[in-house]
Amino acid sequence: MARKPIPKPQHLFINRDESWLRFNLRVLEEAQDSTNPLLERLKFLAITASNLDEFVEIRVAGILQRIEEGYTPSPEEIDDALTEQERLELLADQLHSFVHMQYDCFTGQVLPALKAAKIRILKWSDLNETERSQAMHYYETEVDPLLTPVSIDPTHPFPRVLNKALCIAFLLRRKQTKARKSILGIVTVPRSLPRFVPMRCPAGEFHFLYLHELVQARAERMFPGYQIVARSAFRITRNSNLYLEEEEARSLLESVRAELHNRRKGDVVRLEIESGANEELIEQLRINFDLDRWQIFRVNAPVNLSRVADLYSQIARPDLKFPQFTGSLFKLDSKSPDIFAELRKHDVLLHHPFESYLTVEQFLQSAAEDERVITLKQTLYRTSSDSPMVHALVEAAEAKDITVVIELRARFDEASNIRWARSLEEAGVQVFHGIAGRKTHCKLALLVRRDEDGVMRRYAHLGTGNYNPVTARFYTDISLLTVNPEITAAVHAVFNYLTAEADAADYKPLLVAPQTLATELIRLIERETLNARAGKPGHIIAKMNALLDRKTIHALYAASQAGVKIDLIIRGMCSLRPGIHGLSENIQVRSIVGRFLEHSRIFWFANKGKSEVYCGSADWMPRNLYERCEAVFPVLDPELATRLRDQILEAYLRDNTKARLMQPDGLYLRAPRSGAPFSAQNFLMTGKDLPSKTLSKPATKATKKPVKKAAKTKSRS
């Protein structure tokens, strides 16, 4: 039978921006889902707003800039026949539709549910006299000293409005003149204050007043001599891309610091304003910020939904939140005096947050404190504001050789990383900023210890997530602790590359970007393809955040056509089209959005029954494969590799509660539910057995022996 024609090349890929918007829609669905605890729904809604902020200030800003510069994309970059302008117009419609859904969720679903739970968010007009008196006292003591009202006239130019700062615009008219012309007044609402002002209320209830409502209520006092014609809260989003010019006479730290200052002054990309705002007021703002009309987003209050997350911590209602969860602690064998002795017996694999990140913290802290440890090297991409690991590095610098490769250009963490870099340097740590033109995204730590037997050994931590104990509580990630000489020697070679640009001939068994990762990845996929063509089982399971690289997608298409079964677990963007006959019918793409942010990258290859599994810092995106310093590591311990395949990956493939399956057109549908509901994240939290079904098998006509029941693994808790 003749195969159906394969789609034309421009139809092989889904546009990354459309795919991203669909991911954010899946997050919004969690806010709309009444089976989730109410305050968790509020948090999901805030996440969609924060996600959208970054999308606008990076992706939309980038499109606008390309249009302004007359940029023409190369054939390899084109997803469809649309021009950049046509793409922008389509994206604008999608953005407005999404914002409409966000506010429908907030006003139509979440607010009524909050009210039913005796949680009220009040406007000024809702307050009685006693409540107004309380609010005014708060205004006089906490708010008014921080306000700087500005009226716009020839002697007072329009103020420099900060990126994403909540502001209030006033349309003013002088009382003592006959002039009919109105002018603008602007006041910035202090970011240091809570977005929602707590009010006194009956026991068991929670009442809050919008901060901007309180500021607006005192407009006459801020602008004496003016009639307040109209008022409205608004917020602008600026282009936040960094355009670094790295010069010989200028250090990277100085370049990033200078560009951070420029980011605050970037072109305005979006104006959010209350839907009932005065048209003249909107037009004056539009003209001042030089915006097209599609860049104005009228919202049904409050402006800036990302700040509704503040309510989560302000409301002490555990019954409206997910039950508290703390990952299990790794326990040393009774015969092991410390973590180093334990690692000499076997590797340790941790799956965060289901297994506590405290083990990684303690490993690094032990390295800093242990007198037998001579040197310690670590990469830092993002970390917490008060990182115990960084403090340990500072303390250890007095007695050990400490080297840190800190990435100054980690988006939106640049200022924090600059501060850390300075603190570390002042403490005597050798601080490097990686390779010029490439972000250091790998997650590696390496120490050298003279053990009790007199032998000098390397110990390493390799991970998929950042060295951030805060996000480790709600990001899923993999950590490997090992003393394996092949792996630790390769980690050492990676650090030499990062600090001296000393490129090794080989980094095996690691796959390192930009040197070997892309080619080795294609080789692993093609090996499964050749096996399937030879009638042998072919199967790939890959879990990651995003899949955009076209060379990799082409290799996956070829593998599918050869009969390789491909299970992709991709949280966010995916440009591959699954399920197209003659092209990708053997590929299934699923996305899981739940309580924890799926962040781990795990890649499993059947390899004719001698399966290989890798974890690492890199998604299958061009920036990760070709433009960043990344490290993907094999899990060589058979027991740990089996656990990754038969427990962790299998759980995600079984999920029929939080999983959505991607369709050929890029849309997502809930995974069909046959039998009892099963949530991967709940299973990984509770440790209960998987449903007794046959494990996923490769799509092949070749005869294959039954999959053996997963071997019991030693407790890692």
Automatic annotation (TrEMBL):
Its EC number is 2.7.4.1. It is an enzyme of class 2 (transferase). Gene3D superfamilies: Endonuclease Chain A, Polyphosphate kinase middle domain, Polyphosphate kinase N-terminal domain. SUPFAM superfamilies: Phospholipase D/nuclease (SSF56024), PHP14-like (SSF143724), PPK N-terminal domain-like (SSF140356). The active site is at H441 (phosphohistidine intermediate). InterPro entries: PP_kinase, PP_kinase_C_1, PP_kinase_middle, PP_kinase_middle_dom_sf, PPK_C_dom2, PPK_N_dom, PPK_N_dom_sf. This is Polyphosphate kinase. It comes from Terriglobus saanensis (strain ATCC BAA-1853 / DSM 23119 / SP1PR4). The gene is ppk.
